[in-house]
Write a structure and sequence with these properties.
Pfam family, one: Amidase
Number of helices: 15
Keywords: Hydrolase
Radius of gyration: 20 Å
CATH class of one domain: Alpha Beta
InterPro entries: Amidase, Amidase_CS, Amidase_dom, AS_sf
GO molecular function: amidase activity
EC number: 3.5.1.4
Number of strands: 13
Length: 448
């Protein structure tokens, strides 16, 4: 199992290793076969220079490797958002706030990572530049055919899972951090959206977009969140038995793959044996989301508003699957959009009432294990399967984005199983309880 950022930082501070040594290890991983299609652009020399800055080991990230999704501005680089449409865009004049905060904390940026074009899919497939294959951070390469790594932060997830980066900066609009976390055996934390600035990032949905990160452990997720949100997480000494947890039955447990069902049930049994209070609830309000989003949802409307001029000039250069989803927004009227805003507010209020008695909810992050890339590869003959898989991968995670909530995905599978994620989640600004509970669950699962 890969060493995490917290332990590596301690080794560097104690003189048992150095940021320079750690950067070389990450570069070796980035250049290895498991990182095929992971990076759109590498910046190894800049990372080496950042790791060599005097005193960097005293900073929170200690000169360790961080990857950046090709969605965020890095000064002097072009932000292409996984597309050919923007490849001639001028270099960014300044770092996005998320990148700037990581840089000030001592990050060594190792490269820009592949992503789904314009972040509009949870599968991870990109017809322009290739698709990274999933890699289990806990148990190594997956058996059998190459499998999807999840999206849209596809390269970010694999960069962390393979050891090329300690943190993968990404975004989450409907699950784009948590899906790669689940399919690669790592951790993804989607904070409450308002806590981290999204300026300097190509938008998908200005309502739902969240800037956040993938890490190797939950304690690393706390470090990354504190840097990105410029705030301290309030730690709680309360044991696992003191937290009130719920498992919602509606929607979240429908049609689970056998591996996911087995891992989720086993995890609940272990947590209950450790004293966790876990109550099963209906949470029927989640079934109402289909009606709320019937006219296309925020992502279609808001992405179309941003892309319509580009589509008019370069529509043929778009991934057809992405283009079709963006163009759904053309048919949404202003009245439909206003109705959607009101419907979302009312739905959030009902959800908050239903969840009020609990500190966090537990669900499978995604209901299926990673399917083979070949089954959803670009090609109209595979479109039906692609959209079926995409819908399943986004089903559970997207509830949290519509809730304006926060969620953590952490691995809960065993050796011999394909990666499975456990999602710990709640509503807006419940980030600290979710992270505290996640730390306790991680500690309990690591005992097994």
């Amino acid at each position: 199992m890969l060493a995490d950022l917290v332990s590596t930082r301690s080794h560097v501070a104690a003189g048992h290793s150095s940021a320079r040594d750690e950067i070389e290890r990450c570069i070796a991983a980035a250049e290895g076969p498991t990182c095929a299609h992971v990076f759109r652009q590498t910046s190894f020399d800049q990372a080496r220079a950042a790791a060599a800055v005097p005193g960097v080991e005293r900073l929170p990230l200690a000169g360790l490797a961080v990857s950046v999704k090709d969605l965020f501005d890095i000064q002097g680089m072009t932000t292409a958002a996984g597309s050919t449409v923007l490849r001639e865009a001028p270099p960014a004049p300044a770092d996005s706030p998320a990148v700037a905060r990581l840089r000030r904390a001592g990050a060594a940026f190792i490269g820009r990572t592949h992503m789904v074009e314009f972040a509009f899919s949870g599968v991870g497939v990109n017809p322009h530049f290739g698709t990274p294959a999933a890699f289990d951070a806990r148990h190594g390469a997956l058996p059998g055919p190459a499998r999807v790594c999840g999206g849209s932060s596809s390269g970010a997830g694999v960069s962390v899972a393979t050891g090329a980066a300690f943190i993968g900066l990404g975004s989450d609009t409907g699950g784009s951090i948590r899906i790669p976390a689940a399919l690669n055996g790592i951790v993804g934390f989607k904070n409450t959206a308002r806590l981290v600035p999204t300026e300097g990032a190509v938008p998908l949905s200005t309502t739902l977009d969240t800037a956040c990160a993938l890490t190797r452990t939950v304690r690393d997720a706390v470090v990354a969140h504190e840097i990105l949100a410029a705030r301290r997480v309030t730690r709680s000494p309360a044991p696992l038995s003191a937290w009130r947890l719920a498992v919602p039955a509606t929607l979240f447990l429908d049609g689970l793959d056998a591996t996911v069902a087995r891992a989720f049930d086993r995890t609940l049994s272990r947590l209950r044996a450790a004293g966790a209070q876990i109550t099963e609830i209906d949470l029927a309000e989640t079934a109402q989301l289909a009606d709320v989003n019937a006219t296309g949802g925020f992502s279609a409307a808001e992405s179309y508003a941003w892309h319509r001029a580009l589509l008019a000039r370069h529509g043929n250069a778009y991934d057809p699957r992405v283009k079709s989803r963006i163009e759904r927004g053309a048919s949404m009227s202003a009245a439909d959009y206003i109705d959607l805003l009101h419907a979302r507010r009312a739905w959030i209020a009902r959800m908050q009432t239903a969840m009020a008695d609990f500190d966090a909810l537990l669900s499978p992050t995604v209901p299926i294990v990673a399917p083979p890339i070949a089954s959803v590869a670009p090609g109209s003959e595979r479109d039906a399967e692609f959209f079926r898989v995409n819908g399943l991968l986004l089903r559970n995670t997207s509830v949290v984005n519509m809730l304006d909530g926060c969620a953590l995905s952490l691995p809960c599978h065993e050796a011999g199983e394909l990666p499975v994620g456990l999602m710990v989640w709640h509503g807006a600004l419940r980030d600290d309880p979710v992270l505290n509970i996640g730390l306790l669950i991680e500690q309990e699962l690591q005992k097994q």
